[in-house]
Design a protein that fits this description.
The structure is a single chain. By secondary structure, the protein is α+β, with helices and mostly antiparallel strands. It is 17% helix and 37% strand. The chain has 1 helix and 4 strands, in the order αββββ. It is elongated, with a radius of gyration of 16 Å.
């Protein structure tokens, strides 16, 4: 939900807050895949397609789209949730996050192969 503390002076979701939410979604997807800690190495190709007004719900989904030896790419999509059954969710955000699997000292660690 886009509440006033997340909003800018136009009454829409502040881009910095949107990036913070997107990075958290990327972290969740990457840490589930890695099975342990991950850190963000890069955020790229972030697109904001439409403003999200205060009071509207933002639905984020994150999916690992590439896996390397120690890193992975996570695509995060954001949709503005419909207000009623006659509306359709619309894509408003998209970004690509590079996440690195790390050990307790912050050093890269190999990702386990998918089963």
């Amino acid at each position: 939900m886009v509440l006033p503390p997340l909003s800018n002076h136009y009454g829409t979701l502040f881009a910095g807050q949107a990036l913070a939410l997107m990075s958290k979604a990327a972290f969740v997807a990457a840490s589930r895949r890695a099975g342990h800690d991950v850190v963000m190495a890069r955020c790229s190709q972030v697109d904001f397609f439409a403003p999200i007004p205060q009071g509207r719900a933002l639905e984020l989904s994150a999916q690992v789209v590439r896996t390397g030896r120690t890193s992975m790419s996570v695509q995060v999509l954001g949709q503005m949730a419909p207000r009623n059954r006659s509306e359709v969710a619309s894509e408003v955000l998209r970004g690509l996050f590079e996440m690195v699997s790390v050990d307790a000292s912050g050093r890269p660690v190999l990702l386990a192969p998918l089963e």
